[in-house]
Amino acid sequence: MSTLAFYVHIPYCVRRCGYCDFNTYTPSELSISNDFSGTSRSYIELLLREIEFARETSTASTVPTIFFGGGTPTLMAAADLGRVISLIGEHFELKSDAEITTEANPDTVTKSKLAELREVGFNRISFGMQSAVPHVLAALDRTHNPENIFKATEWAREVGFTEISVDLIYGTAGESVQDWEVSVDTALSLPITHISAYALIVENGTKLGAQVKRGEVVMPDDDQTADKYLLADEKFTAAGFDWYELSNWSRPGSQSRHNLAYWNGDNWWGAGAGAHSHIDGRRFWNVKHPAAYTQKVLEAGNPMQEEEILTVEQARSEEIMLQIRLARGIARATLSEREESSLSDFLNGGYLVRESWERGSVVLSKTGRLIADRIVREILL
Question: 201 and 56 in one domain?
Fold first, then answer.
């Protein structure tokens, strides 16, 4: 049976974080109510129309995962999010063990809200923790109280979530190694099964990007950022979280199956403003602004802005870039003689796992993960 994962984009946030370049919008930018109640109902109606269109145009029969991201999905009413899950289940066959995830800001949930999310079908939740240190959260323009992560994760466990994840960010201006260690230790004290840890990237067009360009903010050097990654990996591993992707660790059996679908190049449909999709080498994406999305869905049911067909070379490059991030790596047999030869210095330098190499796989060592992009460039020269 052909499968189709669903990503559902909720493009709303109470406030825009200074580092964020995601397709998100605040109430002041859209001139809408801060309580999002009316927005929740109207936007969900549009998503339902797009899912109808997905059913009309897709040949897939089975849905293994659904992921609600943003933005802040938990600003929407749980019942409204549940309508999306229900319609996907009506039009496709939801696998009996389907993974259904929502991202959440710790400040936008209560215990009753989490219980409602469980009732409408969610079985996995990912909290945007980012840091446990107040001055680091302030530098990131994060709005949540760091104490709320304790309550939110405990509530999630109490109402029946068995898969609970937190996202961390390291490399913020002013964050010391000791600050980062506090965040790591705090995350490991929570009732969680999964951790993501991402190095902060300064993106053009963001508030942070402008501050760095003007010299108002000085980012930490690469060596300190690398030290933070290695510290986190050591602590996560010692606590029973296995590394399975460059920035992701989980307890056994708790990997994010939805994200693995991306890294494996599986098919997925992205519903919502600005969402991207991939089906059999065809990539397409929706118009970004909620107003434009509304207009296109109401007029034609199809919010697509553009599409591209990946060439054989593009598809192979993407496969290498994505799969080298995984703990299983890349099969050596898929590399050309030149590509394999280009890796000899990395192998001899300890950046690749020799035992895996001898068994026929290109797998990054711990230090190799720090230069993954450089290794990919060498392969694809």
Answer: yes
